[in-house]
Amino acid sequence: MLDLNRRPRMGLLLISPERFASIGEGTARGSYRERKEAEAAWMVKDASAIAEVTFTGITWTREDVQRSIDAFTASKVDYVLAIYLSWAEDFAWIRFLRDMPECPVLFCHRMRDQIDLKDTHDDDEFAEYLCCGGLVGSLEASGSIKRLERKMLATFAGTWTQVMQRAKRFGMAARARALLRQSTFGLLACMNEVMWSTYVDTYALFRDIGPEMRFLSVAELEDMVNSVTEDDARVTMERIASQYEVLPNVDRDKFLASVRASMGMERMAEKHDLDLLVLNDIDTVLFQHIGLRPGFWPTHPGVKTMVVPEGDIGSGVAFAVLKLLGGEHVNYIEPFHVDLPNGSFDAGHAGPNDYTDSRGKCKISSDVRFAKTQWKYAGAPFAWYVFPEGRKTMLHCSEQTGKFQLVATQVEATHTEHFLATYSHSHFKPVGEDCTTLFSKLLDRGVTQHYCITDGDLIPAVQDLAMMLGCDFEEV
Which of 37, 158, 278, 461 lies at a C-alpha separation of 20 to 30 Å from 43? Predict the structure, then answer.
């Protein structure tokens, strides 16, 4: 499974001209080479605070370029941060753009916080003048960026503090891209036959986004559920019951069955080394064989597999993107209706939803939506959860016009008590616009009903990742 705690891996490419190296020798601040090596040293130190850095020394020559490329490739860097330390011949940069294997590249111009040049007739001052000439080199380099048309390359100009902030965000997106390409998704057991707009091409999923897809059967899930002993399931059930209020409508035998099914689902996902499971939890075959839909994912803190419902692979991508970009807890919603007088909308979702963030409110309740069905465990309970209050990134993913799209917005989860039976839920307010504007934009864009939410503003990082994946992106 993916290591969600690993740091981004940066390759640091710092370019300088060999012809300047000896200028300033014997002056108070040393030669150009000495000044640039000192500058590189603190750049490496600062960059190491945001990433694991691979740096082979300043790039002066053709051989230096190749050495950096070889080191970056061997270290499997997620991205390269490239900076001209002053003006430099562009042969090094052009070779890098041509020969570096495909990976995200952030090309930055560092603006000095201040420049205090005096009479450059003085050798010491003249050397410093040359050291300050990064803008010349950066502008020259920009022409080659256009001519070589390298994919996954972004540019930025700002102070060193701003460069580090931009590189941190870019690095998180590049790390997410790398992890997606190592990931494995599972589909249990099919896409949702009543929601055709959620269908995606699983070959394109692998080609464009990265995950390998495995197709799992309800028969195997049934075997895994049966392998969970009643004693193990009861211990887990009692622990969950001790943490949350259990409502009077909960049948204890059905509670046990729901916990047991959830544990079986998690164990099957672990067996197949799944990073994310797309569960079609309204499939009649699931109800016929399991008698319910699992209602307690995750059953313990050690569960690593992410789970999304209703057979929607695109929403699984959105979930994974938020998780990989740093979302501690990610939840799954669909907007139900707009409350015009209050300028808000109600949203949530039935089925598996992470209920373990202590800032939210959780009760154990009967699944009343299925309480009157003929299934074996009709009305089996689930974790009925109200999402934590605060600013959220709301993200959608689906495949439209042959490409995946990531559509993002900011919403505020407001104070809410439990009121929507069967659904984990909350009240939400769009940030910076009203509900009419937000949903008009979404309808015009062409989306589906499924969205994922997590704390904070991850939209800039989502936009970076969309560029790296070749996805369409829109902030609405």
Answer: 461
The token pair at 135 is 């803008």
Structure token pair of residue 4: 């969600």
Mean pLDDT of the chain: 96
Interval 283-295: pLDDT, tens: 999 999 999 999 9
pLDDT number for residue 400: 87
> Coil, strand or helix: which one is 4?
coil
Q: Which residues pair with 427 in a beta bridge?
A: 346, 414
Asked whether the beta carbons of 225 and 260 are under 8 A apart, the reply is yes
Q: Is the dihedral of CA 75, 76, 80, 84 positive or negative?
A: positive
Contact 398, 198 (CB under 8 A): yes
**pLDDT tens-digit series, residues 360-383:** 999 999 998 777 788 899 999 999
Cα–Cα distance between 96 and 353 in angstroms, integer?
45
- The neighbour count for residue 458, using CB atoms within 10 Å, is 23
Under a CB-based contact definition with an 8 Å cutoff, are residues 390 and 401 in contact? no
Using CA atoms, how far apart are residues 110 and 132, in angstroms rounded to an integer? 10
Pairing of strands 403-414, 424-430: antiparallel
The domains of the chain, with CATH numbers, are: 9-181 (3.40.50.10940), 184-475 (3.20.14)
Chain Cα centroid distance, residue 72: 23
Does the CA dihedral 146-147-152-157 come out positive or negative?
A: negative
